[in-house]
Fold each of these.
Amino acid sequence: MFKESMISAKNKKSNPQSRMNNPKFLEAQLIQMGSILKDPSKVTDKKMKQVLRMYDTYIQWEKSKLN
């Protein structure tokens, strides 16, 4: 889903919702996201690294908000 949202941001003409209704596509995206979140060291894409840093910052912010 990370890549899908980045692609849709670049290409405004595509309709990402039609792909999200496909259960096989959604499952593949969830598996890919899960593997990326388990081991972010394998990510080589610059945008993906930025997204992961933002996600980590958000998680830290949420934890600090609870304390």
Amino acid sequence: MSKKAIAIAVVGDIHDRWDATDGEILKALGIDLVLFVGDFGNESIPVVSAIADLKLPKAAITGNHDCWYTASPWGQRQCPYDRNVEDRVQQQLDLLGETHVGYNKLDFPEFNLTVVGSRPFSWGGPDWKNAAFYRDRFGVEDFQQSTERIVAAVKQAKYDTVLFLGHCGPTGLGDKAEDPCGKDWNPLGGDFGDPDFAEAIAQTRRLGKTIPLVAFGHMHHNLRHTQTQLRKSLAVSPEGTVYLNAARVPRIVTTQSQEQRNFSLVTLEKGQVTQASLIWANLNGEIVSQENLYQLSPQVVQPA
């Protein structure tokens, strides 16, 4: 039986900025479940190993940087290690084990929910990229087959409450540069979300599942074309699903007085997201600043 409210931390694109202290901060914050949206580093085995060692309930998905030297001919040419000797993509998957939910699911009986992953190693956008990589690694050759893999995981979910975890978010969250998955490089604008992810979410709703949260990253909050605003972090669908982009990069900063690390915090209550915020915590796990992103009115919360 899960407790009344579940405290979830969504860890945005890490890009090598993670260590054991982060785990201690999460424990100090009273986090019940940790969701990692990928981009741990450029195929960084040490970072993934540290995340695998985290002693908290967790689920993770890999991002484009986690196949940086493997997925494309360009990356292979830049590769700093011998790919004939090492397979660092597979090493990461082996380290994460069942925690990696890309094209898979992980049931959490203690919370009465299932976390389902979208397409792993996503680069985002409307074009099917890295075709050989997906064909050889996953037997997937196009967006339709990718959607089928995600929905197959949904159908295996033990619980009717499904949290979706992706690296890039789904299409449908806006086509402006500042939207959660908007294209912020020239030419500006356009929805750069994953179409297979969006279709999988739609099919999951038709299966009667409840989707309170879709968490992702990839598109950083700092926009490339302007410093006058940040990317929108959150959107809410007519069905009440909260779509959260957690990619505040860099996630570790040092001020004049202290080091601070960011996490996106989500409260799940009776199968609904009731609150979401982005916080910066010090090394003692104390919140030093907080940006409130979402608050559900108490009268909207459905009875158990």
Amino acid sequence: MFSKSFKKLSIASRNLSTSRQNNIKVAVAGASGGIGQPLSLLLKQCPLITELSLYDIVHTPGVAADLSHIETPARVNGYMGPDQLKDSFKGADIIVIPAGVPRKPGMTRDDLFNTNASIVRDLAKAAAEVAPKACLAIISNPVNSTVPIAAEVFKKAGVFDPKKIFGVTTLDIVRANTFIAEAKQLNPLDVKVPVIGGHSGVTIIPLISQAKPSVLFTPEELKPLTVRIQEAGTEVVKAKAGAGSATLSMAYAGARFTISLIKAMKGESNIIECGFVQSDITEASFFSTPLLLGKNGIDKNLGIGELSPFEKDLLKEAIPELKKNIKKGVDFANRT
């Protein structure tokens, strides 16, 4: 569980008024899946959530019934099948989308594209119609392409707000924090490493030069550490030997991002998370950077800061791949 984070949230919740303005409804699309179930469990534990709306094509009533027995304030409702999709999104402040097929051994995130692209498109269409002001937190891979798809859907519907559509890249940050803490024998709760770029392979750029506390690695140590962060998803896929991809760590990361959004919506200051968003920071039209979150999504894009020579080379390598991924998503959205 989140230990320190949830203790802080529990203290904060005692001071919340019961007025409607403090209510938060979170919808999870794909709530019965490998990521969706543990993600929903973690969100049910957050005392800042008033209502948890769970949607999937199968099993959602059972998942909702199970979670509803947990002694936390969030009311849980389950919705199942296409006919109930829009109802599940109505009134949502945040819609989290982990829906899609998982990666299997030998598959790249790109291999997931055709199936997951259609799923994200259809979910985005429903959100644009019934919850156009909600923040979208997209987990479904390949994030580098699915986020542009959702953005195009919202643009076509005339309700696009670039401050409110996010690709959740938090797992890259969580992994960077963990791996660096292990290497330097630090408490991972104390390590903070921004990760910029995208959410697959060479597009993942951990800014170890900006780590807090400051850490130093030799060039011989830095390259394999960076590659491990970039390929950590494959590490899990291989270890699960056909049984799936990163679900539990992704659920943790998705919950962390969602709870940060909620805290910012409720007026807490200095809430910063990295996220893949529409951006003019680089040549790529979408790019992940640290974001200052606020009541309406992004308050400020904090940019990439000063990069080391090694990180500048990583950025040069990432941009062409990122632009290709983004174009693939935009093209898909515009032809369907």
